[in-house]
Amino acid sequence: MNLFKRRVLPHIDADAVLLDARKLLEKRMAPAARRDFLRTSLTLGGLSLLTGCSISDHEDVEAVLGHISRFNDHAQGWLFDPNRLAPTYGEAEITRPFPFNAYYGEDEVRVVKEDGYRLEVTGLVADKQRWTLDALRAMPQQEQITRHICVEGWSAIGRWGGVPFAHFLRRIGADLSAKYVGFKCADDYFTSIDMATALHPQTLLALTCDGAPLPPKYGFPMKLRMPTKLGYKNPKNIMAMFVTNTYPGGYWEDQGYNWFGGS
Ligand SMILES: Nc1nc2c(c(=O)[nH]1)N[C@H]1C(S)=C(S)[C@@H](COP(=O)(O)O)O[C@H]1N2
Ligand SMILES: [Mo]
Predict the structure, then answer these.
(1) Read out DSSP for 115-137?
(2) CA distances in angstroms from 85 to 75, 230, 233, listed in the order given
(3) Considering the chain, what is the average pLDDT of its residues?
(4) Among residues 147, 180, 183, 256, which one has the fewest Cβ atoms lying within 10 Å of its Cβ?
């Protein structure tokens, strides 16, 4: 939702709030439910019912943005269809060169050495052994050509390969009923995702890009690739991950980006 870009609202723009809520709900609804929904009109009272929060015209902007953000996470999580697949593309549609993006410039990319690298896995998992890249390369691999969408206003199609994340989570005996999987990167980046998305069939612990090991700028030794989520939810240069029920937040999420970050 674009509400976060409207932080300077002098007072609550109820119509804007409702319009955004409506758009979000329509986008995520099954066609049959959408038909019914289009016939109803959404009011602040109705939104309060949906979000389980009381939203009145008299609340301050921050409070309402807080409600909406939690509503957005909740609604997106609730409406997320674990079986719906993001579109895939053909070889010829791959964007070349693929854009680079990080909270710093390309000259500051962190270069992680494969020698001595071990992926650290902690939290609610049975097997806390650390993983070499070779051990991960020996697991079943999958490839996808999907679109990466960045909130900064660009998108690009790329080809990534690696271990289906659901397979990895099962292999390490992760508590699949836990709420979150968090990631720590070689830079100061960190993020976290909901378990439903972690188990989505297109969520990949990506080791390759275009059939070759990920170059450092695209995330060596590995990135989590999720075509169902916006770019900032896809951590690059992953060093550690953990399974938890405690909300871990994220680098941009803690600065107001929507946590669910569906695309
Ligand atoms: N470690 C790390 N991962 C990150 C980021 C970052 O700054 N550091 N930026 C995110 C954002 S906002 C985007 S759009 C994508 C960019 O990935 P790309 O360089 O492969 O295009 O990485 C995401 N993952
Ligand atoms: Mo991004």
Answers:
(1) TT--BEEEESBS----B-HHHHH
(2) 19, 15, 17
(3) 85
(4) 256
| Ramachandran assignment for 159, one of left (phi > 0), alpha (psi -120 to 50 degrees), beta (any other) | beta
Residues (pLDDT < 70) of the chain are 1-68
Query: In the prediction, which pLDDT does 140 show?
Result: 98
Return d(Cα 89, Cα 204) in angstroms, integer. 16
Structure confidence at residue 18 (pLDDT): 67
- How far apart are the C-alpha atoms of 223 and 193, rounded to whole Å? 13
105 Cβ neighbours under 8 A, 6+ residues apart? none
pTM for the model stands at 0.80
Are 228 and 263 contacting, i.e. CB atoms less than 8 angstroms apart? yes
Kindly state the helix (H) or strand (E) to which residue 102 belongs, with its residue range: none
At residue 184, the 3 state secondary structure works out as strand
CB of 150 shorter than 6 A to ligand 1: yes
**Domain boundary assignment for the chain:** 14-79, 91-255
CATH 3.40.50.300 given to domain 91-255: no
Q: Which atom of ligand 1 is nearest to the CA of 104?
A: 7
Q: What is the pLDDT of residue 1?
A: 38
- Give me the phi and psi of 206, to 5 degrees please: -80, 130
Q: Which residue has the CA at smallest separation from atom 6 of ligand 1? A: 102
What sections of the chain are H helices per DSSP? 14-28, 31-39, 44-51, 61-79, 133-137, 165-171, 195-198
pLDDT of the residue at 156 = 95
